[in-house]
Amino acid sequence: MKITLIGFMGSGKTTTGKKLAEKLNVPFVDIDKEIEKNLSLSIPEIFQKFGETFFRKKEIETFKTITTRFNGVIISSGGGMPAFGNNMEILKENSITIYLKADFETLWNRIKNDPNRPLVKLGRNNVKKLFEKRKPFYEMADIIIDTTGKTPAEITEAIEKKLKKIYKK
């Protein structure tokens, strides 16, 4: 089973992904970390040096490599990945997509002081516009999990229940 966790910055994709991979006994791959490793640069450095379009192309290339390499894997996508080009279509064709949904205030409070999130520098209002722009893409996911007020363990449990119900596995 190949699962891609999608959602805005701060939705818990990495934390939840690691827990879910452990429970399902499959590898976990964070696309951002994979890109950083492959290019030997941090995400802010990649944005600064090459721009967002370059980064978004790297995301989907990396996703395709991962889904080819593993039969079962949990993937944490970048927050903007589903909203770039036809990425959401590619994600859905090659994996089960799960949207970790949270309201903007919750997300903003999680990310506003994180120096590793270059888009936060745009300011609260612009980040909110970005969130609103990406939301329709996130909502195309195969499964939507509301993470509001839930711990990573509770989110993981909710995903497992939903997967068992839908995919009987």
UniProtKB/TrEMBL annotation:
Keyword Magnesium: yes
GO molecular function list: ATP binding; magnesium ion binding; shikimate kinase activity
Record keywords, A-Z: Amino-acid biosynthesis, Aromatic amino acid biosynthesis, ATP-binding, Cytoplasm, Kinase, Magnesium, Metal-binding, Nucleotide-binding, Transferase
Co-factor(s): Mg(2+)
Binding site for substrate: D32, R56, G79, R134
Domain of life of the native organism: Bacteria
Residues annotated to bind ATP: G10, S11, G12, K13, T14, T15, R117
InterPro entries for the chain: P-loop_NTPase, Shikimate/glucono_kinase, Shikimate_kinase/TSH1
Entry GO terms, CC: cytosol
Main location: cytoplasm
Pathway(s) served: Metabolic intermediate biosynthesis; chorismate biosynthesis; chorismate from D-erythrose 4-phosphate and phosphoenolpyruvate: step 5/7
Enzyme class: transferase
Reactions it catalyzes: shikimate + ATP = 3-phosphoshikimate + ADP + H(+)
A biological process term (GO) from this entry: aromatic amino acid family biosynthetic process
Cofactor note: Binds 1 Mg(2+) ion per subunit.
Function in brief: Catalyzes the specific phosphorylation of the 3-hydroxyl group of shikimic acid using ATP as a cosubstrate.
Subunit record text: Monomer.
Family per record: Belongs to the shikimate kinase family.
Name assigned to this protein: Shikimate kinase
